[in-house]
Write a structure and sequence with these properties.
alpha/beta, 449 residues
């Protein structure tokens, strides 16, 4: 019987534009790209040249820190462009897909008959190992350092997040194979939500199933690690997105790298919120395919509204995004009397507006910050949305002060930037908390290198 963990702290934000459970296919223009920035902590070294022909699964770049960690092409075709930014930083490797898709063959394998080294070797050969992240530091994992545990969270509870149970349909066998493969490496924990009922989740084999009952961010893998196997100095845990577990399963079951997934197109400025069948690296313009309302200025976000990154129609689907969200920019809003009005159409955690009287109303939120950055106020407001055994405000202060010893004492080893997304949303000081946490983790990682 699954272990049930009840969480009280957190905040659910009900936004307009949730995806209907409908999967559509769109016409692709053949332009794809793999983005190194999708993989935190990776410094890419490109191993292909413009004009090279690649199959799906052939390596495009490797991690300079761990050269055995490859990142493979999501489609077959011709390497069109290697896009570089400042100081020749690699921003994207673009591929023009061929009409017929070809796959590099890595051979089928029965995961029940192999050991951990064989699993890791297979993932490294196929260029999929880099999709595994680790705590501490919330970066792409180091293959030479075995974890004490592996965590997979199938609960997505951020505003307008894609429903993994819908993505899981027709992928149940591959998902179980992926979980079994991970369990060969270390004890594997599967986190699910109290309302999830898919048999592939509730009856998953070879894993320790834990049910999390509570508001967002109960689905954050960092929150689940904190409650089940906290990370101490010198320890490592791996974290795996549930769809990545499906990719792993496909590799073992078919011998091919298949990065096809259902991507949720959501938000109040989407004409038809729905799921689109896409491959990692697909063109955003193709995914949206004339599905954006034009009555307001839109902001396109790769990912969800709390942790996603602003993108444009000319960008490509990142490996870490399960949805594309489109909401109003809000820079054209002109409200009489501003905050003093008794608003009923805007969300407020602290009941500053009358909207809290309307229960679980859907809100059409925009991107305004509604205030300027100011000195940090020690009010305990972070703790109300941070269901972890850490002192959030004190940790942020330690990072800002660059006090590494204090950061370690306050639990930085077990947090990721996304754990502070809700705190950033409600922060009365308007600080970019996720950016601050990322800088603190990078500082600590460099110090301990």
């Amino acid at each position: 019987m699954a272990n049930v963990i009840k969480l009280r702290k957190g905040l659910d934000i009900n936004l307009k534009g949730k995806a209907q459970e409908k999967l559509v296919e769109v016409k692709w223009n053949g332009n794809f790209a793999l983005l190194p920035d999708s993989f935190a902590g990776v410094t890419p070294k490109v191993v292909v040249k413009e004009g090279d022909t690649v199959k799906a699964g052939d390596p495009l770049f490797v991690n300079k820190h761990y050269l055995e960690v490859k990142f493979s092409a999501p489609v077959s075709g011709t390497v069109e462009t290697i896009v570089r930014g400042e100081r020749r930083k690699v921003l994207a490797v673009k591929i023009k897909a061929g009409k017929e898709q070809e796959y590099a063959d890595f051979g089928r394998q029965d995961v029940s008959k192999i050991d951990s080294d064989a699993v890791i070797g297979k993932l490294l050969d196929a260029g999929l190992f880099g999709y595994i992240n680790q705590l501490p530091y919330a970066v792409s994992a180091n293959p030479s350092q075995k974890p004490k545990a592996i965590f997979v969270s199938a609960l997505r509870d951020k505003p307008l997040s894609a429903d993994f149970e819908f993505e899981l349909k027709d992928n149940e066998k591959d998902f179980q194979t992926g979980l079994t493969a991970l369990s060969k490496i270390a004890k594997t924990y599967l986190g699910i939500g109290i309302n999830q009922s898919s048999m592939a989740l509730t009856n998953a084999k070879d894993v320790d199933i834990n049910v999390f009952d509570g508001p967002c961010p109960a689905g954050n893998v960092g929150v689940q690690v904190n409650h089940l196997s906290p990370v101490n100095k010198g320890e490592v845990v791996w974290t795996v997105d549930p769809m990545v577990a499906v990719f792993f399963g496909r590799l073992f079951n078919t011998g091919h790298v298949d990065l096809t997934r259902a991507v949720a197109v959501v938000g109040s400025m989407v004409k038809n919120p729905q799921y689109v069948k896409a491959v990692i690296g697909a063109s955003v313009a193709d995914i949206l395919s004339d599905n954006v309302c034009n009555d307001k200025k839109p902001r396109i976000i790769g990912g969800n509204v709390l942790t996603g990154k602003q993108i444009t129609m000319n960008d490509f689907l990142g490996a870490d995004a399960s949805e594309i969200t489109i909401i109003p920019e809000g820079d054209d809003a002109d409200e009489m009397f501003g905050w003093i009005m008794p608003r009923i159409n805007q969300f407020s955690k602290n009941r500053s507006y009358f909207s809290w009287l309307f229960g679980k109303k859907e809100y059409d939120a925009d991107c305004r910050v509604k205030g300027g950055e100011r000195r940090m106020i020690m009010s305990g407001e972070y703790d109300s949305v941070l269901p972890m055994d850490i002192y959030g405000e004190y940790l942020i202060k330690a990072i800002l002060a660059g006090d590494i010893d204090r950061m370690e004492q306050l639990g930085i080893y077990e947090v990721a930037p996304e754990d502070f997304a809700l705190a950033e949303f409600i922060d009365s000081s308007k600080l970019e908390l996720q950016k601050i946490v990322r800088e603190g983790l990078d500082m600590l990682r460099k110090e301990n290198a």
